[in-house]
Design a protein that fits this description.
By secondary structure, the protein is of the alpha+beta class. It contains 13 helices and 16 strands. It binds one RNA strand through helix 3 and helix 4.
RNA sequence: GGAGAGAUGGCCGAGUGGUCGAAGGCGCACCCCUGCUAAGGGUGUAUACGUCAAAAGCGUAUCGAGGGUUCAAAUCCCUCUCUCUCCGCCA
C-alpha cells in the first residue's frame, strides 16, 4: 500500500511514477473522493467532540448531585446526525481504501523503463553454457527415459500441471532442499523457519496477493458457525441484538513462503537490535495458474504445486537496497555451487510484480529450451508490504515506531533447479550426473 | 468433541456505567544526590488518524475483534477469534 499522504499531497507526481508501470490512475475521481472524505470526517469528528463534551458535563453534574436533564436532552439530539455522518464516512473510507489497495508500488528510480519482459536489462552473466556433442533433450525426456518422472500418473491422480517423481530423482529433489537450507543457514546467516501452508486472507492482504489476485490462489472454503450454533444463538435471550451470520474463515494454500514468513512481523514492532531479520523457509507452493493456459504446458516449469526455498529479510529502510543486492547474491550462490550457468536481469517497470519497488530475476540456462528461464525473483518491497501489515521497527534515532522494509527472493525454486540439473548434466547415454556439491546429500551418488 | 477460566499500555497488574488513555509496579530515558558499584529522589515514557505548509496546539479513535443498549461503555448484553486448564480422541 502506498503512503496515503502521497496520494493527497503529491498526487500528480505519484501518478506519473506509477505510469511507468503502464497503469493509469483516475486522479480527478481520487481527488474528488478525497475531498469528500475530508469534509465528512471533520464533520463527524466535530459531532463526536460535541457529544463527548456534553457527556462529560452530565457526568460532572451528576457527581455534584445537580440536575442534568437539560444537558441530557441536548446530547440526545446529536445522535442521529452523528450516526449518519459516521455511516457516510465509513462508506467513503471503504471506497477510498479499495482504490488504494489496488494501486501497485512505485518503481524505484533505478528501475528501467519498459512495458514487458523485453524491457528487462541484463546486469550480469555467470558460467558458460555447456557445449553438447549430441542434441540435448529437455527435462521431460530425460526424466521419463530414466523412468523416474511421470506426468501421466500425476494427471490421473490430480490433473494437469502436476508431477510424480520416483527413486533417485525424488531423492535428488529432496537433496536440493537440504542443500539450499544448509547453505543459507550456515553461510548466509538466515534463520530457518517452519510455517503454515494454509493462511488467512489478512496475511495475503499483507503481502499484496489480496484483494487483487485472488484468482491466482487455491482457496479452501471454511465457515466458522454451523447451523446448530446459529440456531441456538437465535433462540437466546436477546434475539434482537444477536447478529448471527456465517463468517467466512476460508483459508488459502500459500503461493509462496513469502506470505507466511513475511507475516511473522505483521502487527509487530521489531526491536532495532534484532534487525535485520533474515529467514529462510522451505515450503510447497500452490498456484492456480489461471490465465496461463497454453503456457509452459509441458514439463515441470509451471506446476500447480512446487517446492521452493525462500529468503525473507526485514530491514531498516536505509539498508534495504544493500540487502537486495546481498539477498540476490545469496540466491546466485546456489547456482554457482551447482555449476549452473545463469544471468541476472533487472525487471523493467512494466514487468514487475504488484508489490515490488525493484526486482532482480535470476535466469538459469536450460539447454532443452536453448534459453535462460527464471529460477528466482528477488525483490525489495520497501514499505509497501510493511504498511499493509503494520510491520514496524523502533528507530533508535527517533525512538518512534517506523515502517520496516521487506524483501524476499527465491533461493531457489526447487523444481526448476531440478529441471536445470537434468538438462545441464545429462549424458548421451540418458544418465544424469549429480553436481558434486549435491553428492553428500545423496549418499555420494555420482549419477542417476 | 465435552466442561471451565481468561484476553487491559514494552511487561506485570488494578479498574463492574460518568472529569479513564486508563491507578500502581517493573522496565526504559533524562536529571539530582552519592568519590565511580549498590541504594535513594525527581521528571518523563502508547499508537493511529484528522486539522495545519510544517511544528506546536486542538480534535477523534483505540482496554482481543465485531455488533448492541445508553446522553455516556474497559465496565452491561450478543456473536466471533485466540490463549490456558481438565476430560475424550488422535499423527
Amino acid at each position: 500500500m502506498l503512503d496515503p499522504k502521497l496520494l493527497r499531497a503529491d498526487l500528480d507526481n505519484t501518478v506519473r511514477k506509477l505510469a511507468r508501470r503502464g497503469i493509469t490512475v483516475d486522479t480527478a475521481a481520487l481527488a474528488a473522493i478525497e475531498e469528500q472524505r475530508k469534509r465528512v470526517q471533520v464533520h463527524a469528528e466535530q459531532l463526536q467532540a460535541e457529544r463527548n463534551a456534553k457527556s462529560k458535563a452530565i457526568g460532572m453534574a451528576k457527581a455534584k448531585g445537580e440536575d442534568a436533564s437539560k444537558v441530557m436532552q441536548e446530547a440526545s439530539t446529536i445522535g442521529a446526525a452523528l450516526t449518519q455522518a459516521q455511516a457516510e464516512l465509513e462508506r467513503i473510507q471503504t471506497a477510498l481504501n479499495d482504490v488504494v489497495l489496488g494501486i501497485p508500488n512505485i518503481p524505484h528510480e533505478s528501475v528501467p523503463e519498459g512495458h514487458d519482459e523485453r524491457g528487462n536489462i541484463e546486469v550480469r552473466r555467470w558460467g558458460e553454457p555447456r557445449k553438447f556433442d549430441f542434441t540435448p533433450k529437455d527435462h521431460v525426456e530425460v526424466g521419463e527415459r530414466l523412468g523416474l518422472m511421470d506426468f501421466e500418473v500425476a494427471a490421473k491422480i490430480s490433473g494437469a500441471r502436476f508431477v510424480v517423481m520416483k527413486g533417485t530423482l525424488a531423492r535428488l529433489h529432496r537433496a536440493l532442499i537440504q542443500f539450499m537450507l544448509d547453505l543459507h543457514t550456515r553461510d548466509h546467516g538466515y534463520v530457518e523457519v517452519y510455517v503454515p501452508y494454509l493462511v488467512n486472507s489478512a496475511s495475503l492482504r499483507g503481502t499484496g496477493q489480496l484483494p487483487k489476485f485472488e484468482a491466482d490462489l487455491f482457496k479452501v472454503p471454511h465457515e466458522s458457525i454451523d447451523d446448530e450454533v446459529a440456531l441456538k444463538a437465535l433462540q437466546g435471550k436477546d434475539n434482537d441484538s444477536v447478529a448471527v451470520k456465517k463468517i467466512d474463515r476460508s483459508l488459502y494454500l500459500i503461493p509462496t513462503a513469502e506470505v507466511p514468513v513475511t507475516n511473522l512481523v505483521r502487527d509487530v514492532i521489531v526491536d532495532a537490535k534484532e534487525m535485520p531479520l533474515k529467514f529462510v523457509c522451505h515450503t510447497p507452493c500452490f498456484r492456480s495458474e489461471a490465465g496461463s493456459y497454453g503456457k509452459d504446458t509441458r514439463g515441470m516449469i509451471r506446476q500447480h504445486q512446487f517446492e521452493k526455498v525462500e529468503l525473507v529479510q526485514i530491514v531498516p529502510p536505509r539498508d534495504s537496497y544493500a540487502a537486495l543486492e546481498a539477498l540476490t547474491g545469496h540466491a546466485e550462490k546456489i547456482l554457482q555451487l551447482l555449476q549452473l550457468p545463469y544471468r541476472v536481469v533487472t525487471l523493467c517497470a512494466g514487468d514487475m510484480g504488484f508489490s515490488a519497488a525493484k526486482t532482480y530475476d535470476i535466469e538459469v540456462w536450460l539447454p532443452g529450451q536453448n534459453r535462460y528461464r527464471e529460477i528466482s525473483s528477488c525483490s525489495n518491497f520497501e514499505d509497501f508490504q510493511a504498511r499493509r501489515m503494520q510491520a514496524r521497527w523502533r528507530n533508535p534515532e527517533t525512538s518512534k515506531p517506523e515502517l520496516a522494509h521487506t524483501l524476499n527472493g527465491s533461493g531457489l525454486a526447487v523444481g526448476r533447479t531440478l529441471v536445470a540439473i537434468l538438462e545441464n548434466y545429462q549424458q548421451q547415454d540418458g544418465r544424469v550426473q549429480v553436481p558434486s556439491a549435491l553428492r553428500p546429500y545423496v549418499g555420494g551418488l555420482e549419477s542417476i
